[in-house]
Each structure stands twice: as structure tokens, then as C-alpha cells.
Design a protein that fits this description.
With 285 residues, the protein is of the alpha/beta class. The protein has 10 helices and 11 strands. The strands form 3 sheets. Strands 3, 4, 5, 6, 9, 10 and 11 form a 7-stranded mixed β-sheet that branches. A two-stranded antiparallel ribbon has the order 1-2. α7 links the parallel β7 and β8. α1 packs across α3 and α1 crosses α4.
Length: 285
């Protein structure tokens, strides 16, 4: 078991970009921080930091350990708080979920957090990933769980799965390369819609939007009824009883992300650690 003091020093150096600022943040001397890192590297059996005359950065091993360290320390603080040790967890925590992330394990995680911390107010908002991320960047959300198809949006990848074209039981004209592909999609903020249109454009295929829905339920009903094809994860297509269309251009994988504000408040950091644990199993749920 890694010492929590050593883990806090590693994260302080990683987050602040240097030993001096890390020492100031933790109210320790720079030599103490250096000693902590040496001891942690000895225990881990890996070099954790790359140091130059101008910067300090995590090595690949350091990056892996830092990810675990955030979870370990958040759960450590959560355990202390739940037992009445130290400060109580309070304040509002706003969480955004894309519809694909509204699953029993995640909802149960939010419920358990609320029960364990009655002074913390959890507010949930469901929407499209793009809209939720924009809201988070504007200060309206603390945490977002959603999907993306490539791009450089910051966040932690929980899992990924193939994105496929899907249709209902009725035959469509999607196999005819001379006819526009009838698309059933979400709004402009949906990463699947953007990935689908980009794939068609690259292949020189024309398309027309025959259905646009703000909800997954409406979209699945339209596709099942034969209005068009839709880009969707393979697991969702199987769950909805849709058939995969293999004659259209290949789509990228969908990545499911956990994203938070740059410096989450204490209550959000604790919930973030718990969501990371339960959401990482979302592919199996």
C-alpha cells in the first residue's frame, strides 16, 4: 500500500509543474517533497518524473500511478468523511450524463453518494455530450460522463466500443450508392452525427437527414419504423434490436469519457472517484 503522504506529493508536483510550487501547496520544504518522490519511486520500482532545467513532467509509469493516486486519495478522504473524521462533505455537485450513461450502476453511485453525504446536494442533468461539455466549461457542471469520436477534448477514457450503422427490419435504399443515405440523428451537438457525416463525405456519399430527435427513444423508434439509418454503438444497436448495415463507410470507435473541471471542489472530487469506479464497468452493465 502506497503512503497517502507520498501520493499527495506526487500529485502536487504533477499538478503544479514543479517541486517549489508543490512544496508551497503542501506547506512543506522542497527537500521534503524530493524525499517523498524518491521514496515513492523506490516503492513503485519505476521512475515517476522526468526533470529538465525548465519543467517537470510525469513518466508513463508516473501517469499510471497518478491516476490511481487520485482515486486512492479521494476514497481515503471519503472514508474519513463518512466516519465523521475531519470536515463534512457539503455543497452542490452538478453532474451531466449523456443518455448512454444513464445506467443503473451510475445512478446507484449517485444515490449512495447522496446517502453517505446528506449535506452534499447532487444535481443531475441528462443531455448531449457536446451541450454538457459546453455547460461544464461555462461553470454550470462539475462532472460530465459522455462519449466522443476522436478529438482532443480533455478527459479520462473509461472504455471504447465500435460505432456502427444501424437500421430497423425494413429494407432501405442505403445500399444504393447513387441514392442519398437517409439519416436519423441527434442534433448538431452529437459526436455520432458529426462522425457519420464525415465518413459519408470522405467516401463521396450523399445523405439527407430524414429524422432529427433530441431523445434516444424517439430516434430508435424512427429507425425501427424504417425511416432511416443511424450511427450508434454496437451494444445499443443490439439492445434496440436493430440490424447492422455493413455496406456504408466505416465509422470510428466511440470513446466514453469522464471529464471534470480543472480543479474540482472537494465534494466533486470525492464523487468523481466513485463515478470512475462504477462507470468503468459501464460496458458490462
Amino acid at each position: 500500500m502506497f503512503d497517502s503522504v507520498l501520493l499527495r506529493s506526487l500529485l502536487a508536483v504533477a499538478d503544479s509543474g514543479g517541486f517549489t510550487r508543490a512544496a508551497e501547496r503542501l506547506h512543506l520544504t522542497q527537500s521534503a517533497i524530493s524525499a517523498h518522490i524518491r521514496r515513492l519511486e523506490s516503492e513503485a520500482g519505476h521512475k515517476l518524473l522526468e526533470r529538465t532545467t525548465r519543467s517537470v513532467s510525469l513518466t508513463p509509469a508516473g501517469t499510471r500511478l497518478a491516476g490511481y493516486a487520485r482515486t486512492i486519495l479521494a476514497l481515503h478522504d471519503d472514508a474519513r468523511a463518512s466516519l465523521g473524521v475531519g470536515r463534512r462533505v457539503c455543497g452542490a455537485v452538478s453532474v451531466g450524463l449523456s443518455e448512454e450513461m444513464v445506467k443503473a450502476p451510475i445512478i446507484d453511485c449517485l444515490r449512495r453518494f447522496s446517502v453517505a453525504h446528506p449535506d452534499a446536494e447532487v444535481a443531475l442533468q441528462v443531455g448531449l455530450t457536446g451541450e454538457l461539455l459546453a455547460l461544464m466549461h461555462a461553470g454550470g457542471l462539475d462532472i460530465v460522463l459522455g462519449s466522443r469520436c476522436g478529438g482532443d477534448e480533455r478527459g479520462e477514457v473509461l472504455w471504447s466500443e465500435p460505432l456502427v450503422w444501424a437500421r430497423g427490419p425494413l429494407a432501405l435504399g442505403a445500399d444504393d450508392a447513387t441514392s442519398p443515405v437517409p439519416l436519423a440523428v441527434f442534433s448538431d451537438q452529437c459526436p455520432y452525427r458529426a462522425a457519420a457525416i464525415e465518413a459519408l463525405a470522405r467516401a463521396g456519399r450523399q445523405w439527407r437527414i430524414v429524422c432529427q430527435s433530441p431523445s434516444a427513444g424517439g430516434l430508435m423508434t424512427a429507425v425501427s419504423g424504417g425511416l432511416g439509418v443511424t450511427p450508434v454503438t454496437r451494444s445499443c444497436a443490439l439492445a434496440a434490436g436493430l440490424q447492422e448495415v455493413t455496406t456504408l463507410p466505416a465509422l470510428p470507435h466511440a470513446q466514453f469519457m469522464l471529464t471534470s473541471t480543472a480543479k474540482p471542489k472537494r465534494s466533486a472530487a470525492l464523487l468523481l472517484a466513485q463515478l470512475r469506479h462504477c462507470a468503468s464497468r459501464g460496458e458490462d452493465s
